[in-house]
Amino acid sequence: MEGKADVYPFAAIVGQNLMRKGLLLNLVNRKLGGILIRGEKGTAKSTAVRAIADLMPELSVVNLPVHATEDRVVGTLDIEHAIREGEKKFEPGLLAKAHGHILYVDEINLLDDAIVDALLDAAAMGVNTVEREGVSYSHPSRFILIGTMNPEEGELRPQLLDRFALSVEVNGERDVESRMEVIRRRLAFEADPDEFRRRYEPQQLELRERIERARQLLEQIKPSEELLKWTAAVGIRLKVDGHRADIMLMKTAMAMAAFQGRTQIVADDMVEAAMMVMPHRMRKRPFEEGAYDHETIRQLLGDLLSEVTHAS
Question: For residue 24, what are the contacts with CB-CB under 8 A and spacing of at least 6?
Answer without folding.
Answer: 52, 207, 211, 259
